[in-house]
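Most newcomers find our protein records easier to grasp once they have seen one. A learned vocabulary of local backbone shapes supplies the integers on the structure line. An example says more than a description, so a record of this kind follows:
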Amino acid sequence: MSDVWGLVHREREALVADLETVETPRWDEPSLCPGWSVHDVVAHLVDNARTTTPRLLLAMVRAGFDFDRQNARGVARERCTSPGETLERLRAVMGRTSSPPAPRASRLVEEVVHGEDVRSPLGIRHVYAQEAVVLALRYQLRTPVGLGGGKDRVEGLSLRVTDAGVVVGDGPVVEGRALPLLMTVSGRRACAHDLRGPGVDRMLSRG
């Protein structure tokens, strides 16, 4: 595996650069992450970049071990009054290597999936590092939905990644490029139009 942190830092830097020219009103547009605006997602990325194991454990205790509540509090903590201030906070954490107690590949899920959560509704096109996307996809395929992954959505299906030569699983086929597969496996139905195969409907029926 290549340097995961190098890939993470590259994606953070690219997102900051892409957001520098986005007008303030557009930060309130809904992201692809259900219930969160573009601004919310950026604040979440700041909070996540600052997370350490002790900080996460304390936050979970204060949230009554409710993962959604803990995330919402993190967004509220890091979301500034103005998008420009929140963007400066993201810029300040670009080079951090702190992480919650999870495999490093989960950091790529954060940066790629949430990066697309932000860019897609804003109409921003970005070429993600293919290695980052594939590593993130492989992580999501082995991680349960309850832990933020997509394993349950693809059980009994065969995924064929057309731009990476990767085949995973066995069963009705779901075929497409790595990024739309990653986004759909991660619960973003809006990206499923790029997928094809007899297994697509089954995957989407699983939420």
Notes: The chain has a mean pLDDT of 93.
